[in-house]
Structure formats: structure tokens, C-alpha cells
Amino acid sequence: SLMVSAASVASAGPIDQARQLYNDGDYEAVVEKMRPVVKRSPRDGNANYFLGASLYALGQLDEAVKPLETAEGRGVADAARILAIMALDRYDASDASKHIDAWAAALTKSKKPKSEEFEFISRRAIQLGNMLDRVECIEVIDSINVDSATFFEVYRLSSAAGSLLPPDAVSRLGAGGDANELSVAYMPENRSELLWAAADTSGCFNLYGADILDDGSIDHSTILDDALREGGSAQFPFLMPDGVTLYFANNGENSLGGYDIFMTRRSDGDGEGKEYFQPQNVGMPYNSPYNDFMMAIDEASGLGWWATDRNQIPGKVTVYVFIPSQMRVNVEPDNPNLADIARLSSIALTQKEGVDYAEMLRTHLPGRNDAGVTQSASSPAFALDMG
Hints:
alpha+beta, 4-stranded antiparallel beta sheet, 13 strands
């Protein structure tokens, strides 16, 4: 069948050949075939599209822009789609909106309906613009690239901040459930309750909680609040020592993309009587179009932590260490480094001159990682499935 496919590609015209090769994922072959076509016919929309789209797929972003813009100008809807995505990845909301408008015009002209992807990217552009208006000033003092399977082990929390537990801890402590379907669990210092995430029959994750009784046994578990998922999945709970403020991650309708970190507060009721308020997206630079999760703030050490796969390192996530603020202060909207601060292209942009952050880390970190108390060599590996 490969010989038949190759023969059919060879007998087709250059654009049909490019389309077939592109659909097969052979982007280098598309680039090789389309370069001379674009040179001969620089205004050919389809040739420019396949050249630009293949360069984009190969990660040659700068070179992809010109042919994609030419194709967009010729009314190729998919060229405008890719340019909109590229603008979102650069945190350029206004440029993204421009390409979304061109995308919409091309779809209208060709009498094609707007897809779910169109609606999703349009929402993301609006949300990105709103988030860029309120990027928080924080000091990121360190970043650590670690294996995604055990990322939580590098959170050096003091005992007052509670403990992050490996996924099998929930079943080992008697709360039931399949360890393979559990997220990192959280237990406060007083060991009064356990919070975790588990998948339901639809494959979506909900946050669960259970009280720990005086004899150390686990009371029956309950879903904290189905609304915390916001139509997606909710995972990675962390409860502040006030017993009210809950950080977690969801990938629902108010996420910029993938998992975003959210904050909610709960009432002082007991067990199933607790009510959770509308979750608030904590914004940038914590969140990104990628997966951002497991916010933990240690008031005793004055340090905070969160994890992200925004740097797209295979098998790894980046854990950022930062100094939490008592009061939120946002970066000035006209700051020329706004987008770079928002996406943390360099943590140095968040730091103050003359501060010895290495010394701050040395003096502020607890002497041990409390999460390590509950871990053992027999603990199963935690596969971070962000789907």
C-alpha cells in the first residue's frame, strides 16, 4: 500500500502532493516540494499555506510567518488559524484577534461553519487579553526541571504547610480508590482531613475529601463540589492553614489552556456541609496556555511553589519557587516586558536588583521535605496524565 500511496502522490499535481504528504506528517518533504512552487508563484495561497504550515509543524516559526500571512491574505482559513495560535503562544492578544477576524472572514466566504476550535481559540484570545491586563508582580527565585512522575517531591514544605502525599497514599490510608486514578493528595498539619482527586466513570477528575477520625481511620469520602471542575477536570488540591483557602487546578471553561491554577474559599461548615465559592483563576504569570498546577504556599518559610509543563521538556515539568505577596500588585500594562513577564521567559525579569536569592533560598527552605516522610521505594510511579 505504501507503493500505491507513493505512486498516487507522484502522479498528482504539486499541491495535491503537498496535501497528501502534509496529511502523512512528512513536513520536510512538503517544504522541499513547496519552496520552488512558492518561488515561481509567490501569491499562490495553497502553496504558501502548505509551506508555512509545514515550517510551523517543524518548529521553524519565524520562517513560517511570511508564507502563512500570504496564504491568509489569499483567504486560506487554516493559515489564519495557525497565525492566531502562534500569536496566542507569543501572548500577543491583539495580533491573535486580527488573525481570528481573518479566519472568520475566510470561513464566511467559503460558507463553512465556525468549528469548536474556532470558538475555543476566540475565547482564549479574549481571556489572554483580560489576563494581560492584570499580570501579578511576583519574585520567582528559582526554577527546577524535574521528572513529571515525581514532581511534588521537590516541594520543600515546612510541617505547618501540611504534606503532599503520593497517589497511592489515599488507598493506603483507607480512603479506597484505585491508586492509578489518583492525583497527588494533601493532608494539613493537624491531620484532620485528606484531599485528593479521582476519576469518575466518564474519566473526568473530581476533588474529593474525607475527614480523618480521632483513631486515625478515614471517614467516608465525598466530592468537594462538582462545580469546581467548571466542565472539565479538577486536580491537585492544596489547603492553606486557614482551613478556608483552597488552591487547585482545573482544565474547564475558564482555563487559558490545559490545566490552570484556581483559588476558591470554603465555608466553615463540617464535612458535606462545606460550601465552595466560585473559583477564581489566579492569572499570570502562574497560568499559561499549557498545564499549570499544584500551587502550594508555605507561610512559615515565606515561599510558594507551582508546577508547569509550559517549557515543553519531554517527561519533565518545571517547578517555580516564588515569594508570595500579602497584597496583589500588578505589572503596569505599558511595561515593555509585560508579555515576557507573563510567560516567564526569564525569571530574572521578576527579580529585584541587589537581592541574593540563592541566600534567600538557603535560609528560607525547611531542613527536610515533609512529603518524603510518607514516600517509600515501594510507592508506584505517578504517571502525570494531563489529558
